[in-house]
Amino acid sequence: MPALSVEQRRAFLAEPRIAAFSVSAGEGRAPLTVPIWYAVEPGGEPWIITGRRSRKGRLIEEYGRFSLMVESVRPRVRYVSVEGPAERQPLTEELLRAMTERYMLPEAVEGYLAAAWAARTELDDAVYVLRPEHWLSADLSEHGGTTGHRVV
């Protein structure tokens, strides 16, 4: 399976998909892995929003790094996985709007923004920027995309 180029990986991540977020859950535990919204600007680094007091946030704060894995199965099987250290930044209304507009239908943006901004202090929401150190990716296009692959 050929790996994607740097440009292909970044273009793939720029599409609004749901990522599988993983962070160490400590000795004797499998990593915490959950779906999450993420964003990345062209040429930039992926970032997420989560509460500092949430389980995800506490584990990022403790271990200092996380990974994201994003995949597609149509029109062809591809994935990008990226892992590295995290840098916490304050959540701003501008960043919350950018994330919301990436995932929500236009008619739902303002209502979601109002509720999310009002609730941001409950878990002490913050932005965590992923500083990529390790990448994995694959494109199965040369094997016929989803042809021959079972997609359920």
UniProtKB/TrEMBL annotation:
Domain of life: Bacteria
Keyword terms, alphabetized: Oxidoreductase
Listed transmembrane segments: none
Pyridoxamine 5'-phosphate oxidase N-terminal domain sequence ranges: 7-104
Name of this chain's protein: Pyridoxamine 5'-phosphate oxidase family protein
Source organism: Streptomonospora wellingtoniae
